[in-house]
Task: structure prediction
Amino acid sequence: MPTRILTAVLLLFCTQNFISADDALVETSEVKLKGLTLNVPKGWTQSKKRSSMRLATFEIPAGEGDQDPAEMAIYNFPGGGGPVDSNISRWVGQFDSKGRESRITKGKAGDSDYYMVEVSGTYNQPVGPPIRRQTKAVEGSRMLAVILQLDQGVYFLKLTGQDKTIKAQRKLLRQSFGGSTEGETEYKP
Result:
């Protein structure tokens, strides 16, 4: 009887998708979005898109010490969505320059290039329709944003929220699209 239970547990374990997060395994679900396949941690809940421009929106539970969940928005635009450096500058510019810290890296996910932008400080969070260009200042924020250049198109992944929550998602975000800090190099726009 114990052998059957062990076999069943091993079979279940082997048929699930897992990624590593700080030496722990996190179960994932494969999500396909218009040419992009992600391995999304089970704790990330796909929610209603806030805009027709988005391919998907995910809510990420608040990390230890934070109160609010984080959000990941995924975009893909006809024509590619503009130059890499312009998108990086726009993302960094969404944080108040006073006390802002940023790091930009370039890496490979398989044969595809990606750019990772990490910014912390006071986020000028958009409020209401983009056409109104209204924001509210949110201190203690962090953003992880990715430009993923695949053969089938360019995808933008933008994860925003409270500092500790976003820090805890660094490795999981990279692994969701096949990235890794190994081989990343500093990028200067």
